[in-house]
Amino acid sequence: AQGSAYVFVRSGTGWTFQAKLVATDGAVSDLFGSAVALDGDTALIGAPGRDSTFGDDRGAAYVFTRSGISWTQRAKLTAAEGAANDAFGAKVALRGDTALIGAPFSDSTANGDQGAAYIFTGSGAAPNTTWTQRLRLTASDGAANDRFGDAVALDATTALIGKTGGIGAAYVFTGSGATWAFQQKLTASDGAAFDFFNGAVALSGDTAALGAPGANSARGALYVFNRVGAMWTQQAYIKASNSEG
């Protein structure tokens, strides 16, 4: 269970295998490939089971870049405050030279498995070979077992971070580089325990899509939020056409 990731490229309507990516220091149970993100010629790959001298399952994420048809590992990212069982790299997002990495089992001073998410930025001549941790993001109202960072999405200057514990919520941050500020907490209008609201999130401009696989009597549902100015409001509730809930 060291793990790997595979790259395919499209030509017309056909997809062709290009490369198999593995960590240069890969080991058993790393779970490399548990989360992946891609932007242009850069790939970000999570390995939440990666051990370190500071503890098992601390986690890591790896940056690869492509030149022509060849992919090269450029950096291994780890959390400066990381600890055993954080699962850093369980979820990843990438936009340009900014990486957002979830560590849903990271503990706070008072709360176990409260969770955290980390911002890294790349620098240097393309391809970015130097990546630096900028911030550790947490929820101001975080509690034990929230698993903040269990879902992440990134678009331009907006980061969306989900927590699946309790009723679930998503937190919006805006910024760039080393400066990010909390904007709003998003919750479902009819949220309930075990909805796993924000088990998956997506972000495009001023639109956020938040999955809740346990909602609608466990048939699942999707909540869409829209931002006008700095305010987010729920715009739609979507369920499968063959759902009876």
Description:
By secondary structure, the protein is mostly beta strands. The model has no long low-confidence stretch (mean pLDDT 92). A hairpin with a 2-residue loop joins strand 17 and strand 18. The strands form five sheets. It has a four-stranded antiparallel beta sheet with strand order 3-4-5-6, with no helix packed on it. The chain is built from one helix and 18 strands. The longest helix is centred in the last third of the chain and has 4 residues, at 215-218. It has one helix at 215-218, and strands at residues 5-11, 14-21, 35-39, 42-47, 60-67, 70-77, 91-95, 98-103, 116-123, 130-137, 148-155, 158-163, 169-176, 179-186, 200-204, 207-212, 221-228, 231-238.
What tags apply to this protein structure?
245 residues; mainly beta; four-stranded antiparallel beta sheet; 1 helix; 18 strands; 2% helix; globular
SSE sequence, one letter per element: EEEEEEEEEEEEEEEEHEE
Uncertain regions: pLDDT < 50 for 5+ in a row?
none
Shape: globular
- Main sheet properties: 4 strands, antiparallel
Please state roughly what percent of the residues sit in beta strands, choosing from under 5%, 5-15%, 15-25%, 25-35%, 35-45% or over 45%: over 45%
Distance between the termini: 38 Å
Strand order of the largest sheet: 3-4-5-6
How large is the radius of gyration?
A: 18 Å
Structural class: mainly beta
**Overall pLDDT metric:** 92
Number of strands: 18
The helix content is: under 10%
Number of helices: 1
